[in-house]
């Protein structure tokens, strides 16, 4: 254990279903959405050219480009993971579909939702760009036009090469040091979104709408002129000279990889409700429910070290009990007989999993730390939920391995950087364990000295470094320059 300088961190289903064969869990048997739209060509994806598919294609752990990675013991053997079989690279649909890129054998429900999104796109119900925000984010619809998810393509992230928002381009070119987040791996926001959902599920928090890495293609996405011209040329050749056209493995625009988060209905930005509750206080039991949900948000953000949790990046759903109803409206009855009437959804988790703690100049505080809820010690309910899991070293190791399997599929994956990301996360977990054991509040948690827990290097052979199972804790006591604590 090494001490450093002094400080406290403030960081602070659907009718179209009848048109296809329903897959059994683990199987990807279906009539393609193209058939639903009276298009029946099946073509294969081709990893070529300058298109999106070059960025990343699903691979199995053993196929990853880095030989070093293959030798590491990070990934668990024979794990079923999404989009990981090479034979699944065959793609359906004459407009460059993504059908078999998206296989979720472990989650048939999610598979079903993604398939509906693919059907909608093939039928011309395209994802719609969300006007606000700094990146290319899209509301994805089902064939009836209902919003079912939010898709954030890797290439359209704030610093992705196809980001559609010119202001971000301006930042990137003119003043990258002032706008970028130096503690984050650039252009891996989609992985952060999906990993946040994984952490949420593994900790049993249940506040992040399910998010996974998904491939989608749509003409409403931002493509460069070359990809659009190639697509037009191939379509033209297919129509005019079918024998030549058939030589193209993929016709249409290249699929984009990104995060797909389920859309949650009836939620509003936290800011809206927090202001309302100030003037119109909640009944006691509902307030307790909000407090419990809030604690889960704190735990999620703290573990993943989210650097972007403003009060616009979490949503609240509140259904006020019917005042005319005598039986269920008595506050105590709500708790006993009904689901919570108030729920939090932690969205926009793309700026988390830093490889180092934010520095003295850019602290990226958790904005919830200024709320009165942050002064209340963690409840016994939250401690009982989280402590047994995070106190188990095997649980933490499993979590790191699951995140590894997700991250290592990105073309820009770097093993050493990933180790650092996990060192930060382990440090956060260590502090959280202590805070929960000591009955601290969220504000006290964020004031604890920052700590990183690194895996020791147990030796090296040539350029291959073996990582052992011993851990070293390093505390950072330096106080950030911009801090209110
Ligand atoms: N899962 C979801 N369910 C419902 N609404 C959502 C969901 N995700 C995002 N939204 C809505 O879309 C808006 C933009 O989402 P989000 O903040 O994730 O996108 P963004 O492009 O990262 O924006 P920004 O750069 O402003 O953070 C949110 O404020 C919210 O209203
Ligand atoms: Mg946002």
Architecture overview:
The chain is α+β, with helices and mostly antiparallel strands and 485 residues long. 34% of the residues lie in helices and 15% in strands. The chain is built from 15 helices and 13 strands. The chain has helices at residues 33-36, 67-71, 108-122, 166-174, 176-179, 189-203, 225-240, 242-245, 270-279, 284-304, 331-337, 380-390, 393-407, 415-437, 442-446; strands at residues 2-3, 42-44, 90-92, 128-129, 138-141, 147-153, 211-216, 256-262, 268-269, 314-318, 342-346, 450-461, 464-476. The strands form 4 sheets. Strands 4-5-6-8-7 form a 5-stranded antiparallel β-sheet, sandwiched between helices. It has a 3-stranded mixed β-sheet with strand order 1-13-12. Strands 9-10-11 form a 3-stranded antiparallel β-sheet. A hairpin with an 8-residue loop joins strand 4 (128-129) and strand 5 (138-141). Helix 10 packs antiparallel against helix 14 (415-437). The two termini are 25 Å apart. The protein binds adenosine-5'-triphosphate and magnesium ion (MG). Adenosine-5'-triphosphate (ATP) binds at residues 130, 132-135, 137, 150, 209, 261, 263-264, 267, 313, 347-348. Adenosine-5'-triphosphate binds next to loops.
């Amino acid at each position: 254990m090494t001490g450093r300088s002094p400080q406290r961190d403030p960081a602070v289903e659907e009718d179209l279903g009848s048109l296809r064969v329903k897959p059994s869990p683990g199987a990807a048997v279906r009539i393609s959405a193209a058939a639903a739209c009276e298009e029946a060509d099946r073509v294969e994806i081709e990893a070529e050219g300058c298109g999106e598919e070059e960025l990343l294609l699903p691979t199995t752990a053993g196929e990853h480009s880095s030989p070093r990675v293959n030798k590491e013991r990070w990934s668990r053997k024979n794990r079923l993971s999404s989009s990981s079989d090479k034979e699944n690279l065959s793609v359906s649909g004459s407009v460059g579909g993504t059908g078999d890129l998206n296989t979720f054998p472990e989650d048939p429900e999610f598979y079903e939702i993604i398939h509906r999104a693919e059907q909608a796109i093939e039928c011309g119900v395209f994802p719609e760009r969300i006007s606000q925000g700094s990146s290319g984010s899209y509301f994805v619809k089902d064939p009836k036009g209902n919003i079912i998810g939010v898709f954030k393509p890797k290439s359209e992230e704030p610093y992705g090469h196809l980001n559609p928002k010119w202001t971000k381009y301006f930042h990137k070119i003119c003043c990258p040091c002032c706008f970028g987040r130096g503690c984050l791996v650039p252009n891996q926001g989609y992985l952060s979104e999906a990993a946040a959902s994984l952490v949420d599920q593994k900790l049993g928090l249940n506040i992040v709408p399910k998010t996974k890495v998904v491939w989608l293609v749509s003409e409403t996405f931002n493509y460069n002129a070359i990809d659009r011209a190639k697509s037009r040329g191939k379509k033209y050749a297919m129509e005019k000279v079918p024998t030549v056209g058939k030589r193209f493995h993929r016709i249409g625009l290249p699929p984009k990889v990104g995060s797909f988060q389920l859309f949650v209905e009836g939620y509003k930005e936290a800011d809206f409700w927090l202001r309302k509750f100030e003037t119109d206080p909640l009944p006691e039991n509902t307030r307790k429910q909000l407090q419990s949900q809030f604690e889960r948000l704190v735990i999620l953000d703290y573990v993943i070290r989210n650097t972007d949790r403003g009060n616009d990046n979490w949503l609240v759903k509140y259904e006020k009990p019917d005042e005319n109803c005598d039986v269920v409206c008595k506050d105590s009855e709500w708790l006993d007989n009904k689901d919570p009437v108030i729920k939090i959804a932690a969205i926009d988790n793309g700026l988390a999993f830093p490889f180092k703690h934010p520095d003295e100049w850019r602290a990226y505080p958790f904005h919830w730390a200024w709320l009165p809820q942050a002064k209340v010690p963690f409840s016994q309910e939250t401690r009982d939920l989280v402590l047994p899991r995070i106190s188990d070293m095997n649980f933490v190791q499993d979590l790191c391995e699951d995140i590894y399997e997700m991250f290592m599929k990105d073309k820009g994956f770097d093993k050493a950087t990933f180790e650092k990301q996990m060192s930060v996360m382990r440090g956060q977990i260590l502090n959280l364990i202590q805070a929960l054991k000591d009955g601290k509040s969220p504000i006290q948690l964020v004031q604890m000295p920052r700590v990183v827990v690194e895996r020791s290097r147990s030796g090296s052979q040539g350029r291959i470094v073996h990582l052992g199972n011993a851990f070293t804790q390093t505390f950072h006591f330096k106080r950030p320059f911009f801090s209110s604590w």
